[in-house]
Amino acid sequence: MNHQSASHILNVVEKLSKQYLSDIYHLSSTDFDQLSKCHMWAVKDIVSHLVSINGFFQNSIVRSLDGDGMPPEGMPNPGTGSAVTMSEGIANRAIQLSETALSDQSQMIMVSERMEVALLETFRNVNSDEWDLPAYHPMNTLSPRLLLLLKLFESTLHSWDIFNAIDDNYQINLEAANILLEAWKSPEINRWFFTPNIEQVNPVILDVEFELNKGLRLASWSGTLDIMDRPSKPTGAEAVIKVSPSLFSLLITARANLESNISEGNISVVGDESALRWFHTWFRGS
């Protein structure tokens, strides 16, 4: 799987942003107060979180373009943060914001639009030789390009959290899901949603097979995880999970359960199904 160009990723992010703003504009006040598919959050809390994360991304990119990839004052060092260690604080801040500064629904939508537009404009202003500059994030020292992938991640998964809670026919955008395969492979990014399992002593290799001969290999041992392209002539995997990229996006972020989707016929498995027990110990949500 070749890396997608930054311009292509940005085009998809722009389409998702436009659709997201249109969709939240049409939500009722009841919809905003409804529980989302994201643990602990109502719909309005996700909207406020996306406002915050857009501001964080924009600040990090602007600092990166100015030659500063270091953490702002009071922020943790890169490489020290993960979804498990930071999720409670992130959740509480989003809830507080939705109940205070952004408690008015119309204002929340207006601020959402302003922050989406500002961030997209910042991405558009990144020159071709600036996409790989160091950029700050608690999970790791990233780059504007990896932050663009993270923006796609946030927009794709949190849109599902909102709109699937309202309409269970809402699905992950397939174009976005295919690009996110790159995010799952990125060692700078995937440490955010991987939880080492101290009970796993022996190496475990699981392959994931998508359509069109694409696939991933998940190899974990001694509390580490590597996610890479599946070999063209794969051998050595305990099991092969056959799944769509869209459903895999929900599995790896713990929004869908592997076992139940196998039972429902949405996923097929070849090999030793008992090896799959490790999957949800690695991926506990993000």
What portion of residues is helical?
Answer: 40-55%
Q: Which CATH class of the largest domain is shown?
A: Mainly Alpha
Proportion of beta-strand residues: 5-15%
Distance between the termini: 24 Å
User: Radius of gyration in whole Å, from Cα?
Assistant: 19 Å
Give a written overview of the molecule.
- The protein is α+β, with helices and mostly antiparallel strands.
- It has two domains: about 5-175, dinb family like domain (Four Helix Bundle (Hemerythrin (Met), subunit A), Up-down Bundle), CATH 1.20.120.450; about 205-280, Nonspecific Lipid-transfer Protein, Chain A.
- The protein is about 50% helix and about 10% strand.
- It is built from eleven helices and five strands.
- It has helices spanning about 5-25, 30-35, 45-65, 85-100, 105-125, 145-165, 175-185, 185-190, 245-250, 260-265, 280, and strands spanning about 205-210, 215-220, 225-230, 240, 270.
- A hairpin with a 2-residue loop joins strand 2 (about 215-220) and strand 3 (about 225-230).
- The two termini are about 25 Å apart.
- The mean pLDDT is about 90.
